[in-house]
Amino acid sequence: MMRAMSNTTDYLKPILLRLGSMSLAISLLTVLALASVIGTVLLQNQDQADYLQQFGPIWYWVFRSLGLFDMYHTWWFLSLLGFLMLSLSVCLWRNVPRFMKEMRSSKITISDSAMKHMKHSRHWKLKDQSVESVLLAVKGNLKEWRIREEQRGDVSYIRADKGQYHKWGYICVHSAMLVILIGGWMSVQFGFRGNMSVPEGAKESEITFLKGTSTEYMKMPFEVRCNEFSIDFYPNGMPKEFKSNLTIIDNGKEVLTSDIIVNEPLYYKGVRIYQASFGDGGSDIRLKLLKLDGSGDVDFAETKIYTTFKDEATGITLEMSDFRPYNVENMAQIGEPKDFQDLGPSVDFIMRGAGLKAVKIRSFMNAFELNGENRGNFMQVSFSGNTQDFESMALGLDMSNPKEWELLQRFIVRLAGADLSNKKKANMQAFKAALNDVFGDQRPDNFQAMAMRVLQAVQVIPRLPWPYIPVLDDYDQKYYTGLQLAKDPGMNVVWIGSALLVIGLCIMLYMSHRKLWLVVRRQGGVVSISFVGLSNRNPLNFKHEFNEILSKVDDDVQALNKGDTV
Amino acid sequence: MTAIAESNGLWENMYQGRAAFVRYWGYIGLMLGATGLALWGGDGYTEDAYIFQLVGQDGLVWLGTGALLGAGLAIIASMARPEVVNGRIPKMMVSWFDGGALMIVLMGILTIFEPTSAMVSYENQSNLIGGNIVMTMNVVFLFSAICYIAYLFAPASFIGGMATAAAWAGIYSGGAALLLRWYESYLFMDGDIGHAPVSNLYEVFILLFCITAIIYLQWEKRYEAKAMGAFVMLLIATGIFFSIWLESVGQAEIKPLVPALQSYWMKIHVPLNFVGYGSFAVACGAGMAYLVRMWLESRNSKMVAVFPSLDALDQLAYKSVAVGFPAFTLATILGAAWAAEAWGGYWSWDPKETWALIVWLTYGAYLHVRISHGWHGKTLAWWTVIGFVVTVFCFLGVNMYLAGLHSYGRLS
């Protein structure tokens, strides 16, 4: 029985020793660092389809089985952290008792051979006389030091220590890392972190989060209602503040209403609610559909963002994807001072239809103004469907004025009937006729600017392949606020560990254990005095400090001696 | 201590005994006055209002009262018990306070030359003079680097003196330029976008140069390590070329803060991080000096005589890491605290966070093998150099190549 037990310890001991060894710790840290690099180079938690496209099927499969797409939560990465914890624990378990013992009971005496190896030392030999005054003076010079004395036969020892508790530094730092890792584990084990999107005026109580590659849901013990979301802008169009006004509803009762902004979360029942993102929460949109079939008719489409509008007559669908109330752009040429202008509201949608190439369109509500001149409406068109590929397309007409659309229609009709042998003249006459058709005798004051726009529009609009031009006409904006909800019971543990870490580091790096010995030996008629010093770190400073004390000790000895050195 | 200090009795006296003691408590009183103004002056604390209060009449009253009280009490104390003036801390701290005060005074003088609000706008910031001061800093630091390198080949004391003087001039112009930039950020958009000048790469570069130079000059002052300056200043000079490039591509403009950066944490987290980065740069300089000295020794070059001993360089590299590591640790922890307030968690494995961890592990391992296993010399000299490469990647590489939550530090 006994033998078996000692056998197990025999087996265990080398394993434990190895676990606590420094080479293991260093290799663990190296592997951890290298693995972390992978996680930063390979974007984490992206769409699986993107990964597949990026790496091809084989590498995608390899990376996916290694869990590299959510690497920091894989079993192997977590086991690395676990091993680190184990190694730290073993290290502490092995060294702490030794350190404590060393700190408690250090020898006052010092052997001659140890003294010989000291870098800093000085020896005197005096004729026999009372050295009590030297001892007293030396002690007087070492007021800030811990002084202990011992007498052994003819030899008296004085030992002075400073920073003798520096070993607490090691203990603090190592246990701090352990505490931080435990805190991190508690956060993962007992905490959660997920997102919810709440449209203005709506309620939500469920968060979503990614677990590995799948999306999971979790019910909160309360509901969150978004009363209002607002953005404050700087004059250059950069957002200044994102603000949500939230009401917490617990058990059907409104318990709390508060604003949150980035950097100032809301705290309720151990859950922190952060302002994380925002987007369109299904704004009401009215589009003007300017028909291009020659009739000149104008239809309206009432729809919402995130819905698809289907026009029964043409079979065309408009997939409404986004709405923006502001579009601030720098309108200056390169090299000129910046000039920020708000181009007004816009709506994004994809237009599809039989025989049509699908396009993504950003349609602006307002006419574009350049140097105070009305240049008519415009839209941005992307054939790839990516917003980066948007190309601007000027429509020419100011769509807010229905008369201009009418004028264009009449102009096209008049042009068709005109004699085209003299193009300029024909244009002129057709336009005059069209003006008469629309306005009669009462021509508007700005008809010349209107003429310019119509002449430009006639180059563009009849060539469009679409049955109509969809132009943003009216909207009722509604945001959703993107909230992040998190509960983190490990956080305070992490802060305690962090404080311990910093304190430990400061002790470890800035406190050096300095030891001084004054040894007085009476032998025959001679008194020999030795003064030696040792520091565990910072030799440059210690040299300075030692020499300073040494010069005082030397003065004391010389005063006593008055020059009769042996 | 140093030859300069001994030759100038008045200067020496300013940093000794009662003069240092009274001034130290004057500064402490000043800071307490500033704290008092923040807590009880005006109605509630908002940063922008506070800054205007500081430079206005309220500031004069609160700070002046604080400073006079502090200095007055110190004079009384020093009369009652003359031995109190011998404390170590006032002597140590007072030169730092003086330096800070000098920077603020320099900034104040420079503001006289600033154009009025009417002459600048967000769109056109070319009238502001902050950029000129930064350029002065660039030139002075480059000159200092040249002097330090020349010193290696011709260790005449005047070249060394010029190098050191230029480095100090660079620090003061850089510090004053940063403070001036803070002031300038209030000059347009009705003071709406005013913020501390630690919000983009261009600004933190200036901070990094100054901190690196300050840490190096401490070592130079205390340990006569002037030859090391060539290596540290070479790193700064490289950074300066990068920062000039940043300016040329329009990264030097004062821009409003995105909501995520509007937090008092920015003013703590960012500078502290750069104490870490700056120290690691100095450690790298010491490591390079160590390696070069070894190489010179192997060729029996006479230049070796200019260098500090291998042992001293090894110690200086360690000292620099010992300054930088706790600062970097604390900066990372405070960054985590900020993240807990802004991003919903103290740790998100964001690339910047992860690389900060990697930097931390690199220097942590350095300290570990040095303290527990007594390694020193060539391996560790290489370690500081490679460690700094990792640091530079954490500082710049992450911003340039990797996306993530820290993307406002990105080059656009």
Structure description:
The complex is a heterodimer of chains A (566) and B (412). Chain A has 566 residues and is of the alpha+beta class. Helix content of chain A is 38%, strand content 34%. Chain A contains twelve helices and 26 strands. In chain A, the strands form seven sheets. Chain A has a six-stranded antiparallel sheet, with no helix packed on it. Chain A starts with a helix and ends in a 5-residue tail after the last helix. Chain B folds into three domains: 1-94, no CATH class; 113-257, no CATH class; 266-412. In chain B, 73% of the residues lie in helices and 0% in strands. Chain B is built from 14 helices and no strands. In chain B, helix 3 (17-40) runs antiparallel to helix 5 (57-80), helix 6 (88-111) packs across helix 8 (157-184) and helix 7 packs antiparallel against helix 8 (157-184). The longest helix of chain B has 35 residues, at 264-298. The chains are: A alpha+beta (566), B mainly alpha (412). At the A-B interface, helix 2, strand 7, strand 10, strand 24 and helix 11 of A face helix 12 and helix 13 of B.
Report the principal-axis shape of chain B: globular
Q: How many E-type strands of chain B? A: 0
Order of helices and strands of chain B: HHHHHHHHHHHHHH
Q: How many structural domains in the coordinates of chain B?
A: 3
Low-confidence stretches of chain A: 1-5
- Mean residue pLDDT of chain B: 89
| Cα-based radius of gyration of chain A, to the nearest Å | 42 Å
| Quantity of strands of chain A, as a count | 26
Net shape of chain A: elongated
Name the beta content range of chain B: under 5%
Number of helices of chain B: 14
Unreliable segments of 5+ consecutive residues of chain B: 1-6
Structural class of chain B: mainly alpha
Largest interface: A-B, 58 and 55 residues
Distance between the termini of chain A: 69 Å
Query: For this entry, what is the oligomeric state of its chains?
Result: heterodimer
Q: Treating each run of at least 4 consecutive H or I residues as one helix, how many helices of chain A? A: 12
Percent of residues in helices of chain A comes to 25-40%
Radius of gyration of chain B: 22 Å
Estimate what percentage of residues of chain A fall within beta strands. Answer: 25-35%
